[in-house]
Amino acid sequence: MANKNLTEAKRAKKDEFYTRWEEIEKEVNAYLEYNKNMFRDKTILLPADDPFESNFFKFFAVHFNDFGLKRLIATSYDSSPVVNTQLSLFDDENQVTNTSSKAYKIDLTHVVDFNHDGRFNIEDVEKMLNQVKM
What is the per-residue pLDDT across 86-100, written as a single tens digit (0 to 9) for each? Predict the structure, then answer.
């Protein structure tokens, strides 16, 4: 019998599945073992990758400085079933709602310790993005 979760998702037309953080980390680490500067001065484009849900966006945003990225760009359409229904950018208590009907993008060219707590993490990216109009 086919995977029960996939069969149920197909029937319910709920087919939004996301790559897990651990899987991304394992794959990226293989590249970095080959060449520690693999991503240095590179632009990563995540087309049709909703940054509100995408673990790829979250992973590369958190490691932006570690990898020496030049840019991180994520694009999406708000007609996606995910964009208008998510409560938060990074699974916290803040609500984010997009009510327009157009494409949008997030284009990171730098990341900093936005909240000045001595470390850079996903909360810093969230605070930066919350100040940017989409």
Answer: 445 555 544 455 555
Give the 3-state secondary structure of the chain: CCCHHHHHHHHHCCCCCCCCHHHHHHHHHHHHHHCCCCCCCCEEEECCCCCCCCHHHHHHHHCHHHHCCCEEEEEEECCCCCCCCCCCCCCCCCCCCCCCCCEEEEEECCCCCCCCCCCCCHHHHHHHHHCCCC
Q: Closest Cα partner for 134 from 68, 86, 67?
A: 86
**Which one-letter amino acid corresponds to residue 100?**
S
Residue 31: pLDDT band with limits 50, 70, 90: very high
Is residue 35 within 8 Å of residue 96, measured between CB atoms? no
> How far apart are alpha carbons 45 and 30 in whole angstroms?
20
Question: What pTM was estimated for this model as a whole?
Answer: 0.69
